[in-house]
Specification:
Number of helices: 7
Helix content: 10-25%
Largest sheet: 5 strands, antiparallel
Strand content: 25-35%
Structural class: alpha+beta
Strand order of the largest sheet: 1-7-6-2-3
Length: about 425
């Protein structure tokens, strides 16, 4: 219950305004706690502000807006940095003159600020003054509906926007490691749901401890049923419930208006066998892809094996030609095989190699004989197959079978080869 009154002082001001006086626009809220306040007793319209010891908060008007031609709303917003105090009376004041324009008596209300171990609360307080020509008298042009928003709808809209962003990023369901994994319990009808973390329909969902579920009617499916809930003056948290059903479950809205999102965790066969149905979604991929080492981890085990071959004539004109790693290796081996190795070989071996190569002789070491330059064979010690008694190249005189004399041959000389002779 509350009571509201415009003071006699402000009524007097309105009368003066009719005679051409200057308008006085209230610009401050004063909150007070009056011990023993009787909400049934009429407000003393002649009274001013309460004693200073009863005043708990003063704050300038944050906004004023026109409700209609004869009504103006004045509002303040007290965020979580304001507090702690309790109030049961509000005063709308013209600060410069100290004139109280309006008084509200109400039930006790607490205002808390944020502390390390306790969240604060935010409050919006408005006072509506109605009198003839109120909007014009206070020069209020802005419609109150343009700024006096429904903060409840605004905050719920922010929560939904965050949920949708997570849904886009993680998919319908994404669980971290073994979180929410289902396994058989001790009894024949007992199943255990592992604690852990997951994102379900974009809601970050934590199962703080292992859950035991008894499912006697099988086959069935275990589901995680999650929703986001709280109050205007409390934290909001994601709530989770493990449910079993023999028929498919879908998303729904409960009687309190909270949307519920339902995802399967595991199917339970009649014999108790468990099949994991948890979605890996985007989160699993983001968590594991940088560490992937096997084809299963990166999803390559899902790709079919296939091959295709074609002849060279299948290639179209102008097509870019690529060489596979095997083709490069084959070409390299073929090139190296065209050279003779260091082992002994015959002239037929050399001839076969020469005939098998279509290219320059450099590929065959054609300037070498058995890998050696010609100067190597001019050294007597490097020759093989010579008589055992031979130890050097023979001198010219030791060569047999050569002509005894070398008769001159007919030839001419150019006169450039003659020199002058001096006779004495």
């Amino acid at each position: 219950m509350s009571q509201t009154a415009i003071t006699l002082a402000f009524e007097q001001h309105l009368a003066e305004l009719q005679l051409g006086g200057q308008p006085v626009v209230p610009d401050e809220f004063v909150l007070a706690y009056i011990p023993g306040l009787d909400l049934l007793a009429p407000i003393d319209r002649a009274a001013g502000l309460p004693p200073a010891g009863q005043i708990v908060h003063r704050q300038p008007v944050d906004q004023r807006g026109k409700v209609n031609a004869n009504g103006v709303a004045y509002s303040i917003i007290m965020d979580t940095q304001v507090g702690d105090f309790t109030f049961n009376a509000m005063y709308l004041v013209h600060k410069a003159s100290g004139m109280v324009a309006m008084v509200v008596h109400k039930a006790d209300e607490d205002k808390f600020k944020n502390l390390t171990n306790r969240p604060g609360n935010s409050l919006v307080k408005s006072m509506l003054m109605e009198y003839q020509g109120a909007a014009e008298a206070t020069n209020t042009q802005v419609d109150a509906g343009t700024w006096q928003i429904d903060f409840t709808a605004r905050l719920l809209g922010l929560d939904e926007d965050i949920r949708l962003q997570a849904l886009d990023h993680y998919g319908d369901a994404a669980f971290i490691d073994g979180g929410f994994a289902v396994s058989p319990g001790q009894g024949v009808n007992e199943f255990l749901v592992a604690p852990g973390l997951g994102y379900i329909a974009g809601l970050r969902t934590l199962l703080a401890s292992q859950q035991s579920v008894v499912v006697s009617q099988r086959p069935a499916t275990l589901y995680a049923d999650v929703y986001h809930a709280g109050t205007l003056l409390s934290d909001w948290h994601t709530q989770v419930e493990i449910r079993a059903s023999s028929t498919p479950l879908t998303d729904y809205t409960d009687g309190a208006g909270y949307p519920h999102y339902v995802v399967p965790l595991a199917s339970l066969a009649a014999n108790g066998a468990v099949t994991d149905l948890r979605g890996r979604g985007g989160l699993w991929w983001h968590e594991h892809r940088p560490l992937a080492h096997t084809k299963e981890q990166v999803g390559l085990d899902k790709l079919e094996n296939w091959s295709w071959s074609h002849s060279y004539t299948d290639a179209t004109g102008g097509a870019t030609k690529y060489a596979s790693g095997k083709a490069v290796a084959d070409a390299y081996n073929a090139l190296n095989s065209s050279k003779l190795n260091a082992s002994s070989y015959t002239a037929a071996d050399v001839l076969a190699k020469v005939k098998s190569v279509d290219g320059t002789g450099s590929g065959l070491d054609a300037d070498l004989l058995d890998g050696q330059h010609g100067s190597y064979y001019r050294a007597w010690g490097n020759l093989t197959g010579v008589p055992a008694t031979a130890s050097r190249w023979p001198d010219f005189a030791e060569v047999t079978g050569k002509p005894a004399t070398y008769p001159p041959s007919n030839h001419t000389h150019d006169d450039r080869y003659y020199t002058k002779a001096h006779r004495g």
